[in-house]
Amino acid sequence: MCIATACHSRTEREKAQANVPEFVLTYAENQAEDYPTTQGAYKFAELVYERTGGKIEIQVNAGGVLGDEKTVIEQLQFGGVDFARVSLSPLAEFVPKLNVLQMPYLYTSREHMWKVLEGSIGDDFMNSFGGSNLVALSWYDAGARNFYSAAKPIESLEDMKGLNIRVQESELMMDTIEALGATPVPTAFGEVYSGLQTGKIDGAENNWPSYESTRHYEVAKYYTLDEHTRVPELQLAAQPTWDKLSPEYRCIIKECALESAKYERQLWAAREKISENFVRNAGCVVTELTPGEKARFQEAVAPMYEKYCSDYVDIINAIMEAGKAMSAH
């Protein structure tokens, strides 16, 4: 073999070795490919690959193929899955303090929530995962959940009385519905459309994109903007995976997670607007609660704060104060 050929072979071999990742890691996402959180996950994987020079490859598994969120959290704890985006509802079972962020009518607006999450209170929550075998990386947006109904608009607290409202399998959500005077009916997400159609349930609650993409607007055309919950979601890493990574790689991953979160938030806002315009054009009746009426809804659920957050009164007060400070400006 001539010297030139030998050198060429070695160069090709070195190049191939340089492109082999040191780590190939998994990412679990239960939403569809086109959903904002899934697109955020792909952006995260892309940024990590770029900034580690291809040394860390993250493979995103969308559509719930790695299991439901609770299963994924359990897999994260022993490193069976390396990264995931999860909702706070199942996560609060592992980190109870997160219940604070799920309380109804906690925020006055989207801006209020992000001011809280991007400040010292949000950092405090991020740092409360000790002992859980989970590492919090960044917050993702999931919008606000609102009520929608089939027979009549919900314009006041009195309109909630006697309604059968679909809820997730969540004690906190069931208590919220009862506090507002309606009857909670835990129902699988896939059965909500037929439940509204047949009258088994009178209404449900969800964000704009879910209301539109599931076509629930076809059988429940009254949508009330009450924003009873505005719950963020979290990107997580598995502690066993985290422990394997160098400080440099951890730093890059954290930066990429924060950058992907900003990207996801923009996608979410755009998707929300598209969904809202779509259902309005489809003839849905959208009701916005007056400030006075919204205050009545908040008062109705106030006792729940004592039940769920008696150990975190100081955090609740700090969140409320941040909202008042914003309103004063």
UniProtKB/TrEMBL annotation:
Is Signal among the key words of this record? Answer: yes
Q: Which UniProt keywords apply?
A: Signal
Which branch of life, at top level? Bacteria
Question: Which InterPro entries does the record associate with it?
Answer: DctP_fam, TRAP_DctP, TRAP_DctP_sf
What CDD domains does its record include? PBP2_TRAP_SBP_like_3 (cd13671)
Q: Which PANTHER family match?
A: DICARBOXYLATE-BINDING PERIPLASMIC PROTEIN, PTHR33376
Q: What is the protein's name according to its record?
A: TRAP transporter substrate-binding protein
| Naturally occurring in which organism (per UniProt) | Enterocloster hominis (ex Hitch et al. 2024)
